[in-house]
Amino acid sequence: MKTTLLRTAFLFFAVSVISFSLQAQSNSPDARLSGRLTDLSGYGVGNAKITAQLERDSDGLVWSAISGADGTYLLVIPAGRYRIHFQHSSFVPRDVILDMAAAENRTLDLRLEIARVSENIVVTANAEPLDLDHTPAPVDLIGRQEIEQRQAVSLPDLLATQTGISLARTGTIGGFATIFVDGGNSSFTKVLIDGTPVNLPGGDLIYTNLTLDNVDKVELVHGAESALYGSDAMSGVIQIVSHQGSTRIPEVNLFAEGGGFSSARGGAQVSGLVHKFDYSVAGSYFHTDGQGINDAFLNRSFAGNLGYSFSDSNQLRLTFRSNASFAGTPGQTLFAAIFPPDPTAFDDERQLSGNLSWTFKTGSHWVHRVSGMEARFVDTNAFPDFNFSETAQFNRAGFLEQSTYSFRQGAVTAGYQYEVENADPNNLSGLHARRNNQAGFIDARWAPVSRLTLTAGARVEENTNFGTRVVPRAGAIYALRYSQGFLEDTRARFSYGQGIEEPTIFESFDADPCNPGNPNLRPERSRTVNAGIDQYFSSNRFRISATFFANQFRDLIDQQQGPSNSMCSGGHEKLFFNIDAARARGLNWSGEAHLNHWLVLKGNYSYDNTRVLKTVPTAPAVEQPGNHLLRRPVNSGNLWLNATFHRVNFNLAGYFTGVRTDSDFDGLGFTRNPGYARFDFATSYNFGSGISFYGRVTNLLDKQYQEAIGFPALGRDFRLGLNYRLSGRN
């Protein structure tokens, strides 16, 4: 009986407390602000921070809340006039002034605009910028902080440590560089600088002098993206995104450094915001004597990003980048006993690109972008000892218009692009080639449920050489799990794409009677499939990603024996045909761990099993069917450790590559390039007042290796420098 009375009394007390609490809450004088934050396509923006502060009390109390995964939020504040601030790393901040009455319940839904330079936003893989979590294609993002911590100077050095990338250079710092993405040829990767294609007609690109001045981010998209970008996007797309000024008081950065091999480098960057005009310009100078005969390299670069905002929905932007370099080209110096180094040969390269774009909105759903773009390249190869030199000039100029309609569950983009290519590939032949190409494309994104995003698109490309082709793409990303705790979100990705590549100028137009061009060549084609999974742990402090890829390359262009011609070497002409075929299959794995607030560990591993499937009978034995594709290792990986203690930053990067199939191309019989492991170290110390000291050592253990047979890589190299930075602020 006594126990029953105690239970009854306890139950009565609990019910009374809950009832009193609910009544007190309903009579609370506090106001309640709630709503949902979405992007322009209607996706919920989770993990956004909402803060409220009395408008006339900037140093007073701050009330805050965090939006949920679906973008919903609730903020409870006393009555008053508030400045409400909405902040997320991937979106442009928003401020709203509200008068909140006592006990008022108000709903405020906001659509946030994506910040293109955010490290979590993908500009390249979609027709419009989109959060990485909603992008089906595998993407690697390298932000400004990582670039600075690694003290990377050139694009090849930065990309060499990325998942699925293999790099080969014919020499040291100024050597000709080729980059292979997921087993595709170097020309199968389209490179954009702020939206401007900079590949030569036919896909080739000179990476040698592409520096990272004025760069905020580099994006690498895996898989064929010709549905968006047309020719050259066969196995991937790389885009350089320039820094944009954002502070009323300018940000200034000055640096000077020197080191091994009589190297010297210096430069400056200035950025800021004046009323509606933003600016960011940078330039640098670099010179080194190199490590051998005729191995000097000189590079000068200048880049800028200028913008003017007529309003929040109407902006004009001009970006430009110029690189000029001069490099000695001694040849395959590892074979000096057979082929003595050339002490006078050199390569003089100049690249210039520019993009003028106008972005504006018409209504709450429509965004339009109109762009004009141009890229120029001039290359002079000289051999003074033989009194011989040749100059090649290439130019691409184009126009792009695209319009995007956004709705609650997705977006649809339609566009038209026109491009003119001009080339004088050899000043000795007097050949001038021209191609006029145009294309129309459509790309759509739809989220039928909150966990699933579907994408699809197609492009109709009309090319002067190969006529009209249609290339599609499709993808999906599904959130298998939303959770908090140690085992958090799990996402599955799938993407499919077809790619095309136009023939090079030589393959289509060459007037050499022994190597005549073939105007009837079909485009080279690719079909890529990527399927992967991303797993996050412990409040996103840890991430593991694995992606399986299967790429097929068809109608590859090669030369085979043609009609007899006594003028030609071997007594026969060599004709271009669509003959070859190849494939690449493998796995890309990457992981990232924020072990604590001062220590970050990243790593990746790539298994890339390439095969030659079909080629001409006269091809070298190393390029016959069954062999691995040249200079693409089966196994490669990278490890990157970054630590920051108060004013000191340490950065250690190690990468390895397995054995690669290669060729000396001189008939010496070398077809196997051994693997190697290399380590780089970089550090900096901040003295305060904007002054910092930095240093780095590349090839820390002085490893002797070659990325291409016959061309020794640079030995241990060190740099020491001083940096002065005036941090901009509003």
Mean pLDDT: 90
Number of helices: 5
Spatial extent as radius of gyration: 29 Å
Task: Please give the share of residues in helix.
Answer: under 10%
Task: Describe the structure in your own words.
The protein has 730 residues and is mostly beta strands. The protein contains five helices and 43 strands. The strands form eight sheets. It has a 22-stranded antiparallel beta barrel. The longest helix has 25 residues, at 2-26. The radius of gyration is 29 Å and the shape is globular. The chain starts with a helix and ends with a strand.
Helix/strand layout:
Elements: H1 2-26, E1 31-38, E2 49-54, E3 63-66, E4 72-77, E5 80-87, E6 94-100, E7 105-107, E8 110-111, E9 121-122, E10 130-131, E11 139-143, H2 144-150, H3 155-159, E12 165-170, E13 176-181, E14 189-193, E15 196-197, E16 215-222, H4 226-229, E17 236-242, E18 251-259, E19 263-274, E20 277-288, E21 297-311, E22 314-328, E23 346-362, E24 366-383, E25 388-407, E26 410-424, E27 433-449, E28 452-463, E29 467-481, E30 487-501, H5 505-509, E31 524-537, E32 542-564, E33 572-596, E34 599-614, E35 635-645, E36 648-657, E37 660-661, E38 672-673, E39 676-688, E40 691-698, E41 706-708, E42 711-712, E43 717-726
Parallel strand pairs: 1-7, 1-8, 14-17
Antiparallel strand pairs: 1-4, 2-3, 2-5, 5-6, 9-10, 11-16, 12-13, 14-15, 16-17, 18-19, 18-43, 19-20, 20-21, 21-22, 22-23, 23-24, 24-25, 25-26, 26-27, 27-28, 28-29, 29-30, 30-31, 31-32, 32-33, 33-34, 34-35, 35-36, 36-39, 37-38, 39-40, 40-43, 41-42
